[in-house]
Amino acid sequence: MKRLFLTSSFSSVAKLFEDFTGEPVKGKKLAFIPTASLVEKVRFYVDDDRKAFEKLGLIIEELEVSTATTEEVAQALERNDYIFISGGNTFYLMQELKKKGADKLLIEQINNGKLYIGTSAGSVIASPNIEFVSDMDEPKKAPELTEYSGLHLVDFYLLPHYLNFPFKESSQKVVNEYSQKIDLRPISNNQVITVLGNEIKTLVLDDAKKLG
Fold first, then answer.
1. CB 39: neighbour CB atoms within 10 A?
2. pLDDT digits (tens, 9 = 90+) for 124-146
3. Structural domains in the chain plus CATH codes
4. Angle at Cα 205 formed by Cα 43 and Cα 82, nearest 5°?
5. Tell me: the pLDDT tens digits for 53-79?
6. Are 45 and 9 in contact (CB under 8 A)?
7. Of residues 11, 12, 86, 161, which has the active-site annotation?
8. 26, 81, 164, 204: least surrounded by Cβ within 10 Å?
9. Facing residues of 181 across strands?
10. 152 labelled catalytic
11. Rounded to 5 degrees, what are φ and ψ at 176?
């Protein structure tokens, strides 16, 4: 059964994660892929998400796809309980995944039931195609990417950071341009889209849970 936890910011909704898994997550092993952030100047969100996982008690194995071999990627994805892909540049991320064949390895693991967690770019790539985020990301940061197909883990198109700074204008521009053309699902930083088999939900971390 496919299990996806798709966020704009994992650290913002981490309190919802253990309930979603239905199991104690302390001691679980996580393949942590920060690749998307390598071409970005601002990277604090990667550390925020890493700290959130550590606070939950997960054991983190960092997997840098751009420097790993295909075999190393395959082994890391296999031996960890969960897979996480951070935010950053969606196009660069997809370029590096495809160069190593990691896109196919991810799809195989996820279709076999391994839990996948995405943040921002890591969530966008679950869509059938990533071209729709061109106004939020820079395709030119992935000069070797020749086509924009995503992992197609879902049939909808997830748009992160909807109306959140600094993406307020660019995210609204994407909604204006694509909402009538594709099944666009915008989520803010305090929302998450969960997939359990054929069951898809959008959850909101309310203020009470933030304080809890």
1. 18
2. 999 999 999 999 999 999 999 99
3. 3-209 (3.40.50.880)
4. 60
5. 999 999 999 999 999 999 999 999 999
6. yes
7. 161
8. 26
9. none
10. no
11. -60, -40
